[in-house]
Amino acid sequence: MLFDRNVSRVEQHFGETLHLVRTRGSLAAYEGLNHGGDQRLKGLGASFTKLLYSFGWDSVVGGHRPLIMDQYVVIGLNASRNTEWKPLGPWTTDQYCEYLSWAKEKARGWGAGTETDVVERAVWEYGKCLANTRRDAS
To answer: Of the candidates 78, 90, 67, which has an alpha carbon nearest to the alpha carbon of residue 126?
Structure first.
């Protein structure tokens, strides 16, 4: 479906995104794939952060490794940080930057060698648990 909705652009946009994340960093790549961005692909939705994660985890510039951001992460972030971001987005580049900075700070506090994706996984699990609890209560 992604390929059908973005005829002849998927490979080009993936290549541009890979180049962006590795030369200008996670935030530039996020901005490119987000709503209105030059690399945006119809039908990819918020899952584009999964693409960023796989493209940039091992070779990103700019101080922030990309992390996955989805509804469960946002639910967990909101509960952990007392924010009110929309669980289904859209999320701005500034919000993504804030999330990456928060995860980096948490990882440092959790001990030497803790990577930010460990924080991401924990906040995702927490958000998923909260969403399931809310769903069960209704």
So the answer is: 78
CA–CA distance, 11 with 65 (Å, rounded to integer): 23
Cα distances from 89 to residues 46, 66, 70, 109, 112, in angstroms, run: 8, 17, 8, 28, 32
Model confidence pLDDT, tens digit, residues 57-114: 887 787 789 999 999 999 999 999 999 999 999 999 999 999 999 999 999 999 999 9
For residue 65, what are the contacts with CB-CB under 8 A and spacing of at least 6?
26, 56, 57, 100, 115, 116, 117
Q: Measure the CA–CA gap between 7 and 28, rounded to whole angstroms.
A: 24
10 sits in which H/E element:
helix 10-23
Contact 42, 9 (CB under 8 A): no
Question: Could you please report the per-residue DSSP string of 45-111?
Answer: GGGHHHHHHHHHTTS--SS-------HHHHHHHHHHHT----TT----HHHHHHHHHHHHHHHHHT-
Local structure of 8: helix, strand or coil: coil
